[in-house]
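A further point concerns the way the authors explain their paired sequence and structure data. The central task, working out the structure tokens from the amino acid sequence alone, is never made concrete. I therefore recommend that a typical entry be quoted early in the introduction. An entry of this sort, consisting of the sequence and the corresponding backbone structure tokens, reads as follows:
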Amino acid sequence: MHAYRTFSAVSPNPVAAMSDSTTRFSDRADDYARFRPTYPREIVDAILAGFDNPAVADLGAGTGISSRLLADAGARVFAVEPNAPMRAQIVSSTNVTPIDGRAETTSLPEASIDIVTAFQAYHWFKPEAVFTEVARIVPRQMEREKAAIRRSMT
């Protein structure tokens, strides 16, 4: 059983009360790409520690800020983003592949991913559906790590 915070002071379901997260930033994708701050290199190093050229699913990748950082550090990144204008800002390269998908339905092959990230995007996701998708795309030998991630997100 998982404990989820409720935000009843704002709305019985704050995500449903907001506009569709797949289109919410469509008219601001250019500004988002230009002005959104980056992340500290230490965070990327901590995420990739112990992996050599890992396959990373960067869920809710937005304009690809985190995807580029992960790729620059040696990861092969699948930048999963449902918003077309935001996804268009992602610079595709040998190590970054933009994917038209949602965190809950990535379209990535089963057991194809070593690491799953969600830089400032998890609050848009449907938790149970994301956990199911992560279980599908991460190999079975990662079960213990997946359980630890799940505990840290609840």
In short: The CA atoms of residues 36 and 147 lie 31 Å apart. Residues 1-18 have pLDDT under 50 and may be disordered. Strands lie at 55-59, 76-80, 96-99, 115-117. DSSP finds seven helices and four strands in the chain.
